[in-house]
Design a protein that fits this description.
- There is one protein chain.
- By secondary structure, this protein is mainly beta.
- Helices cover about 0% and strands about 40% of the residues.
- It has one domain: Rieske Iron-sulfur Protein (3-layer Sandwich).
Length: about 110
């Protein structure tokens, strides 16, 4: 089994609770969320349309896409309101020396509606 390769995305201090930031790593366009002091990383693109989830409206552990208003559960990536039915790609997050890090080659399984 290949060893995990963690990639830093951004300093944790740069993302306040209740906010998100878009980060690009290689060919991945990601959304990094701070939900009550816990960090989560999902794909940035909504699965229903061209919306940017980092620009969406966060309420608790949910994000609403700014394009059609579909919603997702941030920790799992599972869609929680129409028109979205396909889940988001998500990654496990590790904090290393104050940096939010993921292994881009190790996404978690997608959870659909």
């Amino acid at each position: 089994m290949a060893a995990s390769t963690l990639v830093p995305l951004c300093p944790a201090a740069d993302i306040n609770p209740g906010t998100a930031r878009m980060v690009t790593v290689g060919d991945l366009n990601l959304a990094v969320f701070n939900v009550g002091g816990q960090f989560f990383v999902t794909q940035n693109a909504c699965t229903h349309g061209p919306g940017s989830l980092a620009d969406g409206f966060m309420e608790g552990d949910q994000v609403e896409c700014d394009f059609h208003g579909g919603r997702f559960h941030i920790p799992s990536g599972k869609p929680s309101a129409p028109p979205c039915t396909e889940g988001l790609q998500t990654w496990d997050v590790q904090l290393v020396d104050g940096q939010i890090c993921i292994d881009p080659a190790a996404p978690r399984p997608v959870q659909n509606a």
